[in-house]
Amino acid sequence: MNMRQRKRTATAEIGTHGRTATTPKRIKTEASKALSDVLDNLSSAPPYSVKTVGDVSTPNLQSRKLAAYSQYAASSPFPDFLRPTPAECKLALRILSSLHGTRNRPATVTASTTRAGCGDSPSVVDSLVRTILSQNTSDANSSRAKRSMDATYGRSDHWEAIVAGGVEKLQEAIACGGLSKVKSRVIMQILVQVHERFGEYSLEHLRGLANDEAMAELLSFKGVGPKTASCVLLFCLGRESFAVDTHVYRISGLLGWRPDKAGREETARHLDVRIPDEDKYALHVLMVTHGRGCGACRAGGRTTGSCELRQAFKKGQRTGPACDRSVDLKS
Predict the structure, then answer these.
(1) SS3 letters for 11-49?
(2) What is 224-243 written as a DSSP string?
């Protein structure tokens, strides 16, 4: 047995009886990609230090993120992969709306006092912090962390108190949300860097920037990847940006909307180009809702089932009741 085989065996073993876990391949793939996102977007942050905060976005990391984003900012990394078509997006939106209700962008963005959400705040800094709390954890956990943080420091705009209290106090305040050691460093460094750059705890100037410029500035912070930045654009700034989380990534694969081997960031760039702007908000929210609740589409769910969405896109044909039967999806 070579070294690679030994590592795989050691990873698969559970308990003390040498039994091997039989995790479904799809779940293992999603877990691996989720871990990759943690490493790329969170754990890259160095230990918090006021002295080193000026170096928070190292040139190499920042340039890599910006280069990866700008390379396909206006085009798909898979130009020959022509799905989803606008017609497919409309069909999926109709089916998901019939299953879960319509989702329209609110006229006014309000910040919940009980939920962290994923960028749902009129304050750009608060939106960014809430989205970081939501990374790689459940909505319930991130909401507990946000309520605990508010109880510790006051409401969302008490950034001075958070910075003055130090990273250990912040880590303790958000411990119930998971990954608190990493997230506390990321949040602290962003707050310090924002104040150093602009003289206040505010990123409201992003409202006056074009989408690409706002995205580039958000990506300049360590711990902020394309999904986090896209959520801030979509939910706080009211821009048409299609964010891809674990649920959207999984469902887009089940529907055949991305190449099988496409990573999450590649998928986000591809779908942002392919999905019509007017459908991005509702499709994102509905795909997340569906991914959490559908027995056939959620993580660990059945690979086949009676899901109307899955049936409508089965074998590359529209077969669901929401449309004409046997119509080529590429039409």
Answers:
(1) HHEECCCCEECCCCHHHHHHHHHHHHHHHHHCCCCCCCC
(2) --HHHHHHIIIIIS------
Q: Which residues contact 108 (CB under 8 A, 6 or more apart)?
A: 122
Burial class (CB in 10 A: 0-12, 13-18, 19+), 68: middle
- Look up tokens 């293992």; give the residue: 28
pLDDT band, residue 28 (cuts 50/70/90) = very low
Given a contact cutoff of 8 angstroms between Cβ atoms, the answer to whether 179 and 137 are in contact is yes
119's enclosing H/E stretch is none
- The single residue listed with the structure tokens 């119509």 is 327
How far is 289 from 298, CA to CA, in rounded Å?
10
3-state SS, 140-162, equals: HHHHHHHHHHHHHHCCCCCHHHH
From residue 180, how far is each of 124, 134, 199 by CA, in Å?
A: 21, 11, 27
- Which token pair is 79? 């130009």
- Can you give the pTM of this predicted structure? 0.77
C-alpha 238/C-alpha 125 separation (Å) is 15
328: helix, coil or strand?
strand
Indicate if the alpha-carbon torsion angle 38, 40, 46, 50 is positive or negative. Answer: negative
Q: Which of 65, 146, 222, 227 is catalytic?
A: 227
Q: Report the C-alpha gap between 5 and 11 in whole angstroms.
A: 10
CB 287 within 8 A of CB 267: no
pLDDT at 317 over 90: no
Assess contact for 138 and 34: CB atoms under 8 A.
no
Q: Which residue has the tokens 């055949």?
A: 256
Please check whether residue 220 is in contact with residue 59, taking contact to mean a CB–CB distance below 8 angstroms.
Answer: no
Residue 280 annotated as catalytic: no
Tell me, what's the pLDDT at 284? 98
Backbone torsions φ then ψ of 20, nearest 5 degrees: -105, 130
Residue located via tokens 């912090």 = 129
Measure the CA angle with vertex 267, ends 181 and 92; round to 5°: 115
Cis upstream peptide for 84 (omega within 30°): yes
